[in-house]
Amino acid sequence: MLVRMSFSRHSRSPAVIFDLDGTLVDSEPHYYEAGRRVLEQYGMPGFSWEEHTRFIGIGTRETLEALRREYGIEAPVDELLAAKNRAYLELARAHTEAFPEMRRFVDLLHGAGVPLAVASGSSRAAIEAVLACTGLAGVLTTLVSAEEVEHGKPEPDVFLEAARRLGAAPGGCVVVEDAPPGAEAARRAGMGCVAVPYVPGTADDPAFASAGLLFPGGQKEFDARRAYEWVTGGN
């Protein structure tokens, strides 16, 4: 089922800002495995996928800060962050795939000259590595990591910085997101949102209520042409 809601466009050629993990690329299994390895390394085995899904859409630093508190890990968060980034990059460089229909969406927008950016809770090194290995680096060149702003999602900082770098007004931007914190960040930034839940069970989350276009079934339901027509007004 496709849900449509209104979005007041302030530009005939809106800029589009993509979240990366779980939206453009299927990298969440890598983040889970990297986190599991790090927690095991620090004496906390048994971290489950279900536990990981609580943090989908939250930046890596914020995730590790929460896990450090929950598990009582004494190591500094910067040490944990460095360890997880090393593990993640090893996994991501070995194999990461872009979602096929999302890649088609990027190609449609790029072909139409729509300004594009990536704004992610991942480190800049992780963003660059994933875009390189999926072949998207040549198209998506404006990048913002949560490391570069004061607050991660659900605060709007990464999206506002992406808009600034694109030279676009926030009201003329559309965010593509897979997680409630990202949809909430888009709302706080005053931007439109195309929501493609990575975890379909979150489709009813209140944060997605503000999305202008929602594909409740996630990537299996996402339609690049429909999203493109919605974003551009059919132009």
What descriptors fit this protein?
disordered N terminus; 9 helices; 7-stranded mixed β-sheet; alpha/beta; HAD-like_sf; 235 residues
What's the structural blueprint in terms of helices and strands?
Elements: E1 3-4, E2 15-18, H1 28-41, H2 49-53, H3 60-71, H4 77-94, H5 100-111, E3 116-120, H6 124-134, E4 143-145, H7 157-166, E5 173-177, H8 180-189, E6 192-195, E7 213-214, H9 224-232
Parallel strand pairs: 2-3, 2-5, 3-4, 5-6, 6-7
Antiparallel strand pairs: 1-7
Helix pairs in contact: 1-4, 3-4, 4-6, 5-9
Structure description:
The chain has 235 residues and is an alpha/beta fold. It is built from nine helices and seven strands. The protein has helices spanning 28-41, 49-53, 60-71, 77-94, 100-111, 124-134, 157-166, 180-189, 224-232; strands at 3-4, 15-18, 116-120, 143-145, 173-177, 192-195, 213-214. The chain has a seven-stranded mixed β-sheet with strand order 1-7-6-5-2-3-4, sandwiched between helices. The protein is globular. Mean pLDDT is 92; it is low at 3-12.
